[in-house]
Amino acid sequence: MKSITIKGSERESVGKVATKALRNAGAVPCVLYGGNQAVHFSADEKAFKNLVYTPNAHTVVIELGDKSYNAILQDIQVHPVSDRILHIDFFELFDNKEITMEVPVKVTGVSPGVLLGGVLRLNTRKLKVKALPKNLPDFVEAEISQLQMGNKLYVTKLVSDKYKLLHPDNTVVAQVRISRAAMKAAQEAAKAAKAPVKGKKK
Description:
- By secondary structure, the protein is α+β, with helices and mostly antiparallel strands.
- The chain folds into two domains: 3-93, CATH 2.40.240.10; 100-190, Beta Complex (RNA Polymerase Alpha Subunit, Chain A, domain 2).
- Helix content is 16%, strand content 41%.
- The chain has four helices and 13 strands.
- Strands 1-3-2-6-5-4 form a six-stranded mixed barrel. A four-stranded mixed beta sheet has the order 10-7-9-12, with no helix packed on it. The protein has a three-stranded antiparallel beta sheet with strand order 8-13-11, with no helix packed on it.
- The longest helix has 15 residues, at 180-194.
- The protein is elongated, with a radius of gyration of 25 Å.
- Residues 98-178 form the Large ribosomal subunit protein bL25 beta domain.
């Protein structure tokens, strides 16, 4: 999985006054969990742009002076009106410990059902996976080249040896629905097939 580096500095004061001062200065207060003890730090709000405002999933390298931590974004608080980032929680990664996170679904292939006029619907845009940090995928590939009109692609078709998908077997990832135009054409074709041929003797 691709990684983004965030450079920040550890926080000595974690009270409301210090937190407000950080935000006024354009910084975001953060906490890193998962290790022996929580690490409080802050970083410039602009540093999180490529991490937060993207549909892609990333791991994060947090650099705090001479210290460095591998992590993933766990939770984020955003102002309800201004959409400014108020606070971010990270979770530290360890090479020998599995981690759970959501990754996007990437559709590949061409569906025969879509070529016949069906409409592809992506029911699940992100899937929750569990894996060692080195095996975390950038995305889960959803191959749709076998989907005929009316078919569904279930999560059981997306299994991998490198990670586990934490969803029920009946979870629908994508499906090809019959469009109104295709349905109308089918109905008209059925009526035409049943209609008697003019001039044919009984």
